[in-house]
Design a protein that fits this description.
Distance between the termini: 9 Å
Oligomer: single chain
Number of strands: 0
Helix content: over 70%
Order of helices and strands: HH
Length: 83
């Protein structure tokens, strides 16, 4: 039972660690675009979506090898743990 708890804890920690860069960049870009939209009075939903998606895609391309490495480590750890 303790092994399962450890595995679930490791999985949750890995998901949090892997997802954080994308979420932070999306949040920062959304904040910046929101400030610009408020300052200019332009409230176009597409104007908010495109920069956020572009920034998140760029971060994903940069961090993808690291993300895959973390997820592979988690799977290997789960495969090695005694059942």
């Amino acid at each position: 039972m303790a092994e399962i708890v450890d595995l679930v804890r490791d999985a949750l920690w890995t998901v949090l660690l892997v997802g954080t860069p994308l979420l932070l960049v999306g949040l920062l870009v959304a904040l910046c675009v929101g400030v610009v939209q408020t300052a200019t009075g332009i409230h176009e939903p597409l104007l908010a979506l495109v920069p956020r998606l572009a920034a998140m895609a760029a971060v994903l391309m940069i961090t993808l090898p690291w993300m895959v490495e973390r997820l592979v480590d988690l799977v290997l750890h789960a495969a090695r743990s005694p059942h």
